[in-house]
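note to self: dont lose this again. the chain is below, predicted strucutre after it. 165 aa total, dont forget to put it in the shared folder this time
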Amino acid sequence: MGRLTVLALRAVMAALLAGSLGIQAVLVPLMAGDLEGLDAEYAYLRVPLLLIVVLGVVTAQVVLVCVWRLVTMARRGTVFSHAAFRYVHIVIGAFVAAALLVFALGALLAPGEAVAPGVVALLGGAGLAVLGIALVVLVLRMLLAQAVARDVEASRMRAELAEVI
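---
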């Protein structure tokens, strides 16, 4: 991985992480204040909505930190090791959790007339898209497993060749 690519990716991830911290520090309290003015029939939505937003931001932060670690491993040339699987598994879990949060938001908003049915359908589609990303990362994990296995086999063959020579 090129140095410029790593620096650009890290700059983007740092900006996203800073933005997510801003969301948690500023926008969530503002949203909580706005939700206090809900009609009595929708007041039950306040806490679950805030919880879904906070947990959604946390899943994004987890993904950013794990990708940062994987980029560091790629830069050092150690990404094709068993240590990388820990971060990949966490990324997959975070995307699944994010998909479940989107589905939960849709289920929370579906009854009654809090939002239009089209919004609930869009949330269902967004949940499927996030779940699809988790599946793509799972496929990439399988490719990583193949690469690690080949790397281990190549190391073993090099050791055998060194013994022969």
